[in-house]
Here is the input.
Amino acid sequence: MSQSSFPANFLFGSATSAYQVEGATAEDGRTPSIWDTFCRVPGKVLGGDTGDIAVDHYHRWRDDVRLMADLNLNAYRFSISWSRVQPTGRGPAVQRGLDFYRSLVDGLLEKGITPWITLYHWDLPQELEDAGGWPERATAERFAEYASLVADALGDRVERWTTLNEPWCSAYLGYGSGVHAPGRTDHTAVLRAAHHLNLAHGLGVQALRASLPGRAQIGISLNPAAVRALTDEPEDLDARRRIDALANRIFDGPMLRGVYDQDLIRDTARLTDWSFVEDGDLENIHQPLDALGINYYTPTLVSASADRKLPRRDGHGGGAQSPWPASEDIAFHQTPGETTDMGWTIDPTGLHDLLVHYHRETGGLPLYITENGMACDDKPSPDGTVHDPDRVAYLHSHLSTVQRAIADGVDVRGYFLWSLLDNFEWAYGYSKRFGAVYVDFESLARTPKSSALWYAQVARTGVLQAPDTAPQPVTD
Ligand code: GBH
Here is the structure.
């Protein structure tokens, strides 16, 4: 491998999720998910935005697949809307829901684009939340049934499977800070939810293995925190240890090692005795995986709470309550450096740390960056083209970090840019743009930004192009 080229067969993809792009929330038998409900609670989503229409991918998927092909992408990571294929979260599948995904998959395969399915990207069927949601064990059991149903329908043509996207967000933002659906604020529920998400993953892996042919590759996408301590003082290092336990080891401990670490159990003892972990759960969660997906945006900087010079930040999304259980005495800081339109510091070194760490932790499992990208305040020029040099620089620095990790011996097999399209950015509604392709939220017209054209060159040549070689977008 020359310095600037990626390994052969490297996946250059892009990613989206169902609720963020599909729209058509009441069509073909789909019922509400927790996000449909949450968007209707006043004040929860900026501007009162909803995913009702989103970017209409449900109807425009053919155009979107063509767009990916034109951009030379060889993989597409998307998620299945649970309430589209199994409206109550239980029982038989809705054929029309499955048909949508089957057509999408066939459309991708026709263009030589590898479909990569995420089964759960935060949109729990509302009926399952009404029955208690992720803090309840039954939700994990329902997830395994849903996983087999999708595997039975699509397993003859899809080889890449991800159980959950970022269970940290589902548990901590959904049940802790309440800035995501279902908007609960209960730190004990966070820990119960985390465990049942872990169990859902483990039971889901087993359900997938039972339904899929042996060549299927199964994994999960985590959003591990690259946690740093503000100083090397013991109390800051201890804050680092605690946030590492709550951000990372609470998920990868049971999944990769079959344990919840003792320090995590001790740190959270005043909230729970962890009796919701039943006999056999850890074995069920600890399933062999074929790949691990890492979603990375920015590092996390913590200290013990004493006043420090660096500005504090609320740590995740501006909720009134912290997402972190039993961590009131820990301060979160803004990492130094330039920030994106989300206010997240641009620092690819965190990605390198995580890749090296998970290479070791998994004994050399194939790793994929299943999300990476930045929000910019993109605006079309008068001629209709969209120039986003900051995003090109971000992608370049992170892809270059991926190459460095590969040179260091880490087995990285692919990269998925978040996101293909500008879309519904959760609590921020349509106010934040992560797309490589610009979407006019009125007309829903798509226009590749200069970053998309730059990334297309990387995907076509397998060589990391300099950021200043971004081709100028053209309009017709
Ligand atoms: C992903 O979540 C999602 O999978 C995707 O759906 C979403 O659109 C995308 O990212 C962009 O948001 O407050 O400075 O400590 C990422 C969620 C982002 C949560 C980074 C933790 C830490 C930022 N994570 N965040 S900070």
The longest strand covers residues 114-120. The chain has one domain: 11-461.
